[in-house]
Amino acid sequence: MDFDPWSPAFVADPHPAYAALRERGRVHWFEPTRQWLVPHHADVSALLRDRRLGRTYRHRFTDADFGRTAPPAAHEPFHTLNDHGMLDLEPPDHTRIRRLVSKAFTPRTVERLKPYVHRLAAGLVDSLVAEGGGDLLTAVAEPLPVAVIAEMLGVPEGDRAPLRPWSADICGMYELNPDEETAARAVRASLEFSAYLRELIAERRTSPGEDLISALIAAHEDGERLTEQEMVSTCVLLLNAGHEATVNATVNGWWALFRHPGQLAALREGRVELSTAVDELLRHDTPLQLFERWVLDDIEIGGTTVPRGAEVALLFGSANRDEAVFDRPDALDLSRGDNPHISFGAGIHYCIGAPLARIELAASLEALLRRAPSLRPLAEPERKPGFVMRGVQGLPVEV
User: Fold this and answer.
1) Whether 314 contacts 286, CB under 8 Å
2) Looking at the domain assignment, is residue 283 inside a domain?
3) Residue 200: which domain range?
4) Residue 107: phi, psi to the nearest 5?
5) Is residue 329 included in any domain, yes or no?
6) Does residue 81 fall inside a structural domain?
7) Minimal CA–CA distance to 304: which of 14, 15, 24, 41?
8) Residue 333: which CATH number?
9) How far is the first Cα of the chain from the last one, in angstroms, to the nearest whole number?
10) Residue 86 · residue 350 · CB < 8 Å
């Protein structure tokens, strides 16, 4: 199979194409997206840490210098929102914002959320059991991380309904070559989400609480604070990244478990550690398949020069199945001890929410194992059409 991110057959199972890419070489030009594909774990891991690459180039070059055209003016609200978040910034702005966010997003903050996460997971699973089953996606996988990050930020319960649709519309722009309809939805969601957060930030300025938004307002170092736009962009990033990957990891993980009954039995019988299982599920069916970087200075990969101005597509899903790093890479092995997967990235852009994501994934897994011990699927799920954000449309189950 060829690398074809718009093919339903490829999206259903991209791994044979990944294996072919790894066998053919270390870097491959892909004309439809005008990107260099990087499929090997060692290269992906190294390039995530390489300062000759960046999530943006505008800290060093103009669009014209870099041989790029500026985004259409109609897309500006999305780009303003996206480009002021730390995921799409490079030092010194990235360093400043991440340092300030880290002051509010401390291990103690995350640890303090653990009882809330477990109570919420238990309640959601109890409701699923009381109904005799349902859609695991909408009943457990979606509401848990959305509620957790909203609670952390201080979004009132009555305001949370639009968060998931806003996030989904914005994240549509991270797919390869998004169309104008996708862009229009992302722009609308960016405007609505930003307006809501500006109102919430204004409230917290006058009435601070124990939430992350209040902490971001108060956070400062060497006299530097977050601008309002940086705060809005940071909150959107935390909300989007804080649940998109966790939602997909939950349903991808359970579908993998249903297809590997021996592994599921080992988990139900307590023969594998939950934390080890979570990392293997993240590796085996990676929720974020691709991460992009701009080449700021010429680099060489396997004898091929990738020039300044190019874009590389780091294939996380391929790297996590690399036979050079993982024994039996296509097997689901919940007891896999040596598991250097890169599902959370690496380098300065390593996912700041990784500890919280692991807590959420373990909490929902534990609640479902304990409270729904005979959980089983009713039908094979349909894959979402997008390639970059890997998930399913739903996962019907009975208990």
Assistant:
1) no
2) yes
3) 8-398
4) -55, -35
5) yes
6) yes
7) 24
8) 1.10.630.10
9) 37
10) no
Location of structure tokens 């999530």: 55
Q: How far is CA 372 from the centre of its chain?
A: 27
DSSP label of 255: H
CB 201 within 8 A of CB 226: no
Whether residue 2 is contained in a domain is answered as: no
* Domains contained in the chain, number: 1
Dig out the tokens for 27 from the structure. Answer: 């870097």
Output the CA–CA distances (angstroms, integers) from residue 226 to 64, 103, 230, in the order listed: 29, 12, 6
Entry pTM? 0.94
How far is CA 222 from each of CA 84, 99, 184, 214, 359, rounded to the nearest angstrom? 20, 11, 40, 19, 33
Q: Give the tokens for residue 264.
A: 């599921």
- Tens-level pLDDT at each residue, the chain (399 residues): 689 999 999 999 999 999 999 999 999 999 999 999 999 999 999 999 999 999 999 999 999 888 888 889 999 999 999 999 999 999 999 998 998 888 777 888 888 889 999 999 999 999 999 999 999 999 999 999 999 999 989 999 999 999 999 999 999 999 988 999 999 999 999 999 999 999 999 999 999 998 889 988 888 766 778 899 999 999 999 888 888 889 999 999 999 999 999 999 999 999 999 999 999 999 999 999 999 999 999 999 999 999 999 999 999 999 999 999 999 999 999 999 999 999 999 999 999 989 999 999 999 999 999 999 999 999 999 999 999 999 999 999 999
